Amino acid sequence: MREASIPQAAHVGPGGALRRLPILSAKGTAEPAPPRPAVDYLFFREPLKADAPLLERWAVAATAGSASDAWSAFVGGISARFFKGSLRQRVMDALILSLDILPPQHRADALACLLADGPEGVAAVEEFWKYFGLKRIPEVDRARVAALLLHYEIGK
Hints:
Elements: E1 10-12, E2 18-20, H1 42-50, H2 52-64, H3 69-82, H4 88-96, H5 107-116, H6 119-132, H7 142-151
Antiparallel strand pairs: 1-2
Helix pairs in contact: 2-3, 2-5, 4-6, 5-6, 5-7
């Protein structure tokens, strides 16, 4: 659009004084920035973003559930590839802090897997949920996620 064709907003203040309002950019309104602590996991996040098959394996594993072979294989695979010698807690921390990379329709399932996976998953969600939040969960899944958080006593 040409600047001349963009309508100008104005505010009429007390006494009828006309004041032009600034035009604000809509840049970045589609998806919030990555969670702040996620910067510590760029070694995992950046390759994950670029690896569509790995993202697909995460989505399939999340859909299958934490008790599935798919989930065990996914967690085992990323542990061997990205987290050699690390504690399982570090893997769970990386997953919760990378949930924003997963397509939105799989985020609730992935969160459910993290919570059901054991104490490390619960600890990761408990520590980092405040950086992720419901705003990154599709509206259709928010009630389910809220129920999960309540069940696992996250945010109390």
